[in-house]
Amino acid sequence: MSESHGVGMSSCCLSGSVHEGEPKGRVETIGGLQTYVSEPKDKSTAKTVIFIVDNMVSELINPPHGVFGYEFKNVRLLADNYAKVGFYCYVPDVHEGDSLPISFLQNVEPPLKDQEQAGLVDKAKNAAIVPATLGPWLLKHREAVAKPLIDGFVNAVRMIPGTNKIGAIGFCWGGRYAILQAHGQSKDESGSSIGGVDAAFACHPSMVAIPGDFDPVTKPLSLALGTKDSLLDNASVGKIQDLMAKKTDVPHELRLYEDQVHGFALRSDWSSEKDKKAMDEAEEQGISWFKTYLS
C-alpha cells in the first residue's frame, strides 16, 4: 500500500514573492488550454519543456487577474530563462481558470524566519483555514480529472511540427504530476497511447504517494526538495531515495536544499541571499537535467 504525503496542501505552498521583470512570451490555445509559450532564439521545438504549475492565482492586479497558476509571473520568467538556453517552453493552464486566490494564501505561510516567530494562535488559525479552503479545490482537481487533462496536453504538444523530446517540470501540486509523467505513456479507454514524457524534474512535489508514485517511474527523474519542506519529512525523503536507488536502469537524482521550505524553487524571497541562491541552483539543476536527457 502506498503512503500518501500531504493530503492537504501545505501552507508553505501558499505564499511567496513575485519577482521583478516582464515575461517575454505569448499566450496561445494549445490542446484546448490557454498556454504561455516562450520560444528559444532559433525557434526550434526539438527540445520541449512543459511546466506543470501549482494551484495558486493572484488578485494583485485590478481587476482580479491570475498571477499564480499558469499566469504567475515567476513561472513565466522561469520559462523564459529555459527558453534562453534552447528549450521550447509551454506553461498550460491545467486548472482551467480555477487556481486559488492569493488573497487567501498570502497570510497562510510567511517566510521561514517569520514562521519561527509565529504564535500558537496564528498557527492554529492557519491549520484550520487550509483544509477548509483547499478541500473542495483538491476534489475538483483530483487525479482522475487532472491527469487526463495533462496527458492530453502532452499529446497535443507531441503533434506540433518539429517536436522531438519532451520534458516536464512541476512545482508543488504540479510536481507530483511531473513524476506521474515520468511513468511513461499510458493507455486511454480506447487503447491509444497518452501522456508520458522523456524526462521530468519535480520541485517540492506535494501529495505524493510512497511507493506508488515512484515504483512506476521509467524515465529520467530529478527531484529538488527543501530540508524544511513540511510535506516531505526526512523519513519520507529516505524512502524515496531507497526506492529510486533500486532503479539502476533509470537515471535519477535527488538534491536537498538546506533550510528551504515547500515552494522554494518558484517563490523564494529574493531579499534573502540564501533563498535566492537555492532558487537559482534549482533552476540550474533542471536545465542541466534536460540538457542531458532531452538531447
Secondary-structure blueprint:
Elements: E1 3-4, E2 26-30, E3 33-38, E4 47-52, E5 56-57, H1 73-84, E6 88-92, E7 100-101, H2 102-105, H3 112-115, H4 120-140, H5 143-158, E8 165-171, H6 173-181, E9 186-187, E10 193-194, E11 199-203, E12 209-210, E13 221-226, H7 234-245, E14 252-257, H8 264-267, H9 273-293
Parallel strand pairs: 4-6, 4-8, 5-7, 8-11, 11-13, 13-14
Antiparallel strand pairs: 1-12, 2-3, 3-6, 9-10
Mind explaining what this structure looks like?
The protein is globular. It is of the alpha/beta class and 295 residues long. The strands form four sheets. It has an eight-stranded mixed β-sheet with strand order 2-3-6-4-8-11-13-14, sandwiched between helices. The chain has helices at residues 73-84, 102-105, 112-115, 120-140, 143-158, 173-181, 234-245, 264-267, 273-293, and strands at residues 3-4, 26-30, 33-38, 47-52, 56-57, 88-92, 100-101, 165-171, 186-187, 193-194, 199-203, 209-210, 221-226, 252-257.
